[in-house]
Give the backbone structure.
Amino acid sequence: MIHRKSKEEIELMRMSNQLVAKLLQKLKGLVRPGITTRELDAAAERFIISSGGIPAFKGYNGYPACICTSVNNVVVHGIPGDRALHDGDIISIDAGIKLNGYCGDATITVPVGTISKDTARLVKVTAEALDIGIAKAVQGNRIGDISYAIQSFVESNGYSIVRDFVGHGIGKEMHEEPQVPHFGSPGTGPKLKAGMVIAIEPMVNAGDWRLRILQDNWTAVTVDGSLSAQFEHSVAITANGPDVLSRL
Ligand code: MF3
Ligand code: CO
């Protein structure tokens, strides 16, 4: 069942998502060569707790940290640890916070030091793919209209869109119906109605879309070793168009 939110609920969700956005801004400011992903997670945990929130990822299906830190060829669910960032890396930081009973969820990809032109293009195209998907998040459209817009834009830029992980409805639970694939056909899937809140989170690979999961059962990497970037926003469907709750 797709749970549609009242205006009051959407305002509560704006609060949790704005807190996620502030956290991501803070973490972006800490990213530099030499810092470890564990240090980023520790900063995230301090920020979330001191803001009165609950880390939504920690303990979710046994996930051990507050954020996902996915570096270079890691597509998603990179677990914070001893890895130190290096000049020229990219890191996707995904954060989730529960505040006042509602979840916020967003992701940014951040350059470490100076990145190559090719890498910068991947990051830019991924950010644009999210914006293009958001523009289709209007009542009367279907989920597949978002999926198709993202896939066709990504592929027309010579990249591939990840298929094994999808976006999702979000509310009291971090993952609610409907699923939001980032590939597919226009005019298919559930119809978008005012009050739906969805997290759109395209993962874009420079090479092949196929993934492999490491021994830790979380870390997803590209099979071909190519770079991957991701951006995510939580978006409310409203009578006045898409309302991006996690944009500062
Ligand atoms: N943020 C991820 C998503 O967008 C969820 C992270 S999974 C967790 O769906 F286990 F780390 F929480
Ligand atoms: Co999400």
Q: What stands out?
A: The radius of gyration is 17 Å. The mean pLDDT is 98.
